[in-house]
Specification:
four-stranded antiparallel beta sheet; homodimer; 5 strands; about 15% strand; globular
């Protein structure tokens, strides 16, 4: 093992009000994009920046368990799209009546239209069987890879690039389309590209699928579902 | 079901170079904080902002499965800390020789020192048994809650607030400390507060626990572990 080295302190670590506002603007304006992809290529320099953002996600025990498969090949994208179609037909049948009608009207992916696909995976054995921080919560490495997805998504947004997460797909179909071995866990398949526009609200909210919950309904103080109504925090939610 | 309403397009959706840089600065300067917490209280307005950022994470089928338990009570924090101690002793014993010595030297949590704890959970049955987007990947709701953690973490960083994720703890001990029912899945317990400083590098990197992997080692093109060395993307990694 390498000996410990002194860790330098961040000297430019403060954020201005403008920088703060930029991060919140990014968080609030991020959307799951399905239908507005443009064919414009994503420059490699930009793609590298968003991948690097993903690579700087937190990871349990600093194991960095992720890999990123960048998909530009039309035939590969078509196989992924076919796998979506199969799953989506099954999925639609699971909803009843009106909900099913709405479901079938929704556009839920942009696999072929998006110039780039990115599959994020998790190599659970990357740094050996015992991982610092994973000893009592086995799923922590998967969660690290999910943090990489969210970093990538936010970095893409600030590059004015849309991202859509395709989850209506059998992982084994994705595995076979991308040649991913059984030892590697698939986390996400993302459609990535410039877009005609971003919507103000999530598409499922606008479609009346589910409403946005008030933040105040999901915040508790000190214990599950406990809340002293005089707590001043509640006035800010 | 509500009828569909027109979805307005974002009109202020572009990001300037300065805004872009702010988001990358936030992503690269985010740290897992264990030992530099200050006792200064986190204002409720700031706490509400970072919770709202979390609440605007992507969620599968727009189910927003998360709850946030804000922990300020010293006795509750102490119970969480005790649960960490129990798990950490077990964890240390799982590492061998030099690695165990290094492990025992590391400070891995700031549960009691941090003025605020935030527990993020996932209510898997919040919107019923069938969830759009979860039909073929059952863990998507857990991943949504993880995205909320990452949003909160980044928003905190830009508020100059440190966050540390405590995962060396038995979920059932946390459940009992916070009164969380068995039907609710625990995702994360975060230590939150202002800090004396942020480190330039992750503490585990500096401690020689594991090195930062080169980005180029985890990026593939079109298929798992495939890479045409002439692909211009590789020059940017």
């Amino acid at each position: 093992m390498k000996t410990m080295e002194p860790n330098t302190i961040q000297t430019d670590s403060g954020f201005s009000a403008g920088e703060r506002d930029a991060v919140y603007k990014c968080i609030f304006n991020r959307r799951d994009v399905r239908g507005q992809f443009l064919p414009d290529p994503v420059p490699d320099a930009v793609l590298a920046r968003i991948l690097n953002a993903a690579h700087h996600a937190p990871s349990v025990g600093f194991m960095q368990p992720w890999d990123f498969i960048v998909v530009r090949d039309a035939a590969v994208k078509q196989r992924v799209r076919d796998a979506f179609e199969t799953a989506n037909l099954e999925a639609a049948g699971m909803f009843e009546d009106e909900k099913q009608k709405t479901y079938r009207r929704l556009k839920l992916e942009g696999i072929v239209e998006a110039p780039v696909g990115i599959c994020i995976t998790c190599d659970r054995s990357r740094t050996g069987p015992v991982v610092l921080g994973r000893t009592h919560q086995a799923e922590m490495d998967l969660y690290s890879a999910v943090c990489a997805v969210q970093n990538l998504w936010l970095a893409a947004r600030v590059e004015n690039i849309g991202v859509g997460w395709v989850s209506i797909i059998r992982p084994d179909d994705l595995r076979s389309a991308l040649g991913i071995p059984p030892s590697i866990q698939i986390i996400a398949y993302l459609c990535v590209g410039y877009v005609a526009h971003f919507y103000q609200k999530p598409e499922l909210e606008t479609a009346g699928w589910l409403p946005r919950m008030p933040l105040s309904e999901v915040v508790w103080i000190d214990r599950w579902q406990a809340r002293d109504t005089s707590d001043p925090l509640l006035g800010y939610l």
